[in-house]
Design brief:
single chain, 88 residues, mainly beta, Immunoglobulin-like, three-stranded antiparallel sheet, Ig_sub2, Ig-like_dom_sf, Ig_sub, FCRL2 protein
Length: 88
């Protein structure tokens, strides 16, 4: 089973100025097999990206919200705690 899925942001805490770039990284503490990563924002059905890294260019006011990554190894699925992205 997968465990310890966590999310980090650059800039830290997901606080970013309009027009800047935000990079989110998803890591897994434990789990075997080929891992697949997907990115989501609360309230949106759209898939934001795949892979362990999500880069959002030219952040705007409507990019604020709670982001999380979902990791699957084919047998189990785990999600990170949501990160609140704030536009300064």
């Amino acid at each position: 089973p997968l465990s310890g899925v966590s999310l980090s942001a650059q800039p830290p805490r997901g606080q970013v100025a309009p027009g800047d770039c935000l990079v989110l990284c998803c890591t897994v503490a434990a789990g075997t097999g080929p891992l697949s990563f997907t990115w989501h924002r609360r309230g949106s059905e759209h898939l934001l990206g795949i892979g362990p890294r999500l880069e959002l260019q030219h952040i705007e006011e409507d990019d604020s919200g709670h982001y999380h990554c979902r990791v699957s190894n084919g047998n189990s699925v785990a999600e990170s705690v949501p990160l609140n992205v704030t536009i300064l």
